[in-house]
Design goal:
The structure is a homodimer. Helix content of chain A is 51%, strand content 11%.
């Protein structure tokens, strides 16, 4: 297998061209508006299955971009996703990326209550969102319990997330937790099934931001 | 789809039980010594294809564990992987996790020389390894150019990596770069093909560390 000579700045372009070509070869179609996001997810995973499972609520990308333009924060459930999301790009619009998972108060409360730290993090995010009157985009790449808690707060009327990127990965309650969000009228980008991850959550957030006309000039 | 009630501490155990069961159902076998690593990769990706593509050099896990016990550092090519690798566990053995990708000197040099930052990072890691006489485990989850540079330094005799976790993901030179490492006598854990990622690199490093008898008591 020979190494192909590609300039650093051209690697991404070449990768997306290959993805576009192979989607066509496989007979997979992705709506134009969603293509930059779904393709970036495939770019991050080399897994074409995402073309069949990525699910968008109506006008999801427009809604998420509008929130970003208005300075929404992103709250994620892993520090890996936080590292992967382009904080620099979000800050151009006045937003910040947060992850509360490693906060000592979160660990303490989770232990005391016998629940996951991700559950406590969602409650903390809801509290901050209400105190600061700031919309939050949730980017969940790991913990289905985060999605379950967001749905519970939605159900009891205590908090409504502005947007959910719901791509936890795994084998226990992951598929069911995603469906719990799809059933609501909260706008979302979700990957149905077991697959997802922190890298996928970050790829989705970045793709939506990069697709904003004013984001790419950095 | 109903939500299954599982205590926070039991979620991982339950997930690994499901993975073990489904590997058997799919007729996939993984050697015992490698199973904790391959299963953690599947746990991180929900992708059983890894059971067929994960490739280990002879005694790879023993060699990597020995390096960790002796205080080897881990150098990775993304800050996402750095976030995902348990630095706390590595520090118990005297090692540290590094990523030089965001270092201003790296960005400057890469631009001047028209090469990727990952290439420059590998050279920086080699320099530090030699100066400090410290073995380095490379955990490459993104850039095939990192693997290509490691192979070049191996070929010209200027540097020999102690171990390579080689799981870049993508479409341009990813498969070929992995084969370039497999051809050498450097010990490795590599996922053949296009798949991999920062999350996979972190999962492999963590699985190898967690499998050390003294690592899990934290």
């Amino acid at each position: 297998m020979a190494i192909e000579i590609v300039k650093p700045n051209d690697i991404e372009k070449r990768s997306f061209a290959i993805i576009t070509e192979e989607l066509a070869q496989r007979g997979l179609t992705v709506p134009d508006r969603e293509a930059p996001v779904t393709k970036r997810v495939i770019h991050t995973s080399a897994d074409f299955e995402y073309a069949e499972t990525m699910t968008y609520s109506e006008n999801a990308i427009d809604i998420m971009q509008d929130l970003i333009r208005k300075g929404a924060d992103i709250v994620t459930d892993t520090n890996m996703a936080k590292s992967g999301i382009s904080g620099k790009t979000l800050e151009k619009f006045g937003g910040h990326v947060h992850c509360f998972m490693a906060d000592p108060d979160v660990a303490k409360e989770a232990k005391e209550r016998g629940i996951t730290r991700a559950t406590v993090c969602m409650e903390k995010a809801a509290r901050i969102s209400k105190e600061e009157n700031k919309p939050i985009i949730f980017a969940i790449g790991n913990a289905p319990t985060a999605l379950i808690r967001l749905r519970e707060m939605y159900d009891d009327g205590s908090f409504r997330p502005a947007f959910i990127v719901g791509v936890p990965v795994g084998f226990v309650n992951v598929e069911a937790a995603k469906e719990l969000i799809i059933e609501t009228d909260i706008p979302y980008i979700i990957n149905r099934g077991r697959k997802g991850g922190s890298n996928i959550a970050a790829a989705i957030c970045n793709a939506v931001m990069y697709d904003l006309p004013s984001a790419r000039d950095f």
